[in-house]
């Protein structure tokens, strides 16, 4: 078992890649974003003169270069490499509707002009985004279902359902004549999800019989031992936290976490509160969930403008800005400049979201601003109640999936370097023969030889909104 890092190892006679156009014998993986960092995922698979893009996401309030003190509000991976040969781009596959996987596509599609493949909920979210950038009805979106197979150029792609914190999250197998790849997308093992069916090990145990060449896998929680908690555990923890409160409660969370929103809708119903959403991204996401049948009919939502007329003990507001984003609702509430709601001393603000690495200072400053007005705040590390659960797998889950699928090669993605290394360690301990750890811009050659060529493509970030 070998951890490949800085050397390029060939299983056959060494060859030279004269240009970055894959031949009929080649099977390549090329991350442009999301490998070595969390966010702005953009991945390419190459075979027989064609490329397949998997995900096209953004990050928020990030610098464009490591030493830049200025941050841009919305950034994405630089797509120059693939736009310069867009005639070879067979299609774009979006695994799910989180911003770090779909958020850049509306801004970049004019550079690609190829079909987009995704499931019904993600398609609904994407269409709403396309309207905002003037691309109404211009992008060919092909909706797919569980276990469906689509031929996208030279790639045969099959969609496999799993569990995450958004409706219809899907992994996929990408099949070519020279090898089959399993791309996990974002996932966790949730046996009691708020939305959809529980995780099905059988689906992935069957992959072991399909000679899986490589597994390209989410690394976000690879440093954490054990298993992630269920979204149902989070609902129960939030209910326990809120049920005895006598004042207003505000919950900050990611707008795309529809399962969390449904859980909070249940909490509101069971505690005699009215649920309201403040933030356009939240209302858009719930609207998409309604349109695709993912929002329960018995969970009403009131207009945020009505919050000011309610007694304090009847208010449950869900808002954006859990990462300390300067223009989001939580910051406006802290500054008392939110049009729909004002908070008073002893109201409670709950942060029901992970602290994304790099955002800790912004979150702490925001909490301090609330506390200066005697408004209480509560973060996950400050309570024994489960008020947030991750949508990503811990080491126990990673080990299970490696054992079930039995790939020849593990390719950790979706994480900072320490997360990638930890994922590779789990793969090695679970008897995956080869682990390839790299960064954005590295060319992973999976066939006919196995290895990584460092920094074969110039990568970086571009600002979509400054």
Walkthrough of the structure:
- The structure is a single chain.
- Helix content is 25%, strand content 25%.
- It is an alpha/beta fold and 466 residues long.
- The chain has 2 domains: 2-226 and 391-465, Metallo-beta-lactamase, Chain A; 231-382, Metallo-hydrolase/oxidoreductase (Rossmann fold), CATH 3.40.50.
- The chain has an 8-stranded mixed beta sheet, with helices on one face.
- Helix 4 packs across helix 8 (280-291), helix 6 (231-242) packs parallel to helix 7 (258-271) and helix 11 crosses helix 12.
- Mean pLDDT is 93; it is low at 1-18.
Question: Topology, pairings included?
Answer:
Layout: E1 2-4, E2 27-33, E3 42-47, E4 50-56, E5 58-62, E6 72-77, H1 80-83, E7 89-93, H2 99-102, H3 105-112, E8 116-118, H4 120-132, E9 141-143, E10 149-152, E11 155-161, E12 170-176, E13 179-183, H5 201-205, E14 214-218, H6 231-242, E15 249-252, H7 258-271, E16 274-278, H8 280-291, E17 315-319, H9 329-334, E18 348-351, H10 360-372, E19 376-378, H11 395-405, E20 409-413, H12 417-429, E21 434-436, E22 443-447, E23 451-453, E24 461-465
Parallel strand pairs: 1-21, 4-7, 7-8, 8-9, 13-14, 14-20, 15-17, 15-18, 16-17, 18-19, 20-21
Antiparallel strand pairs: 2-3, 2-22, 3-4, 5-6, 6-24, 10-11, 11-12, 12-13, 22-23
Helix pairs in contact: 4-8, 6-7, 11-12
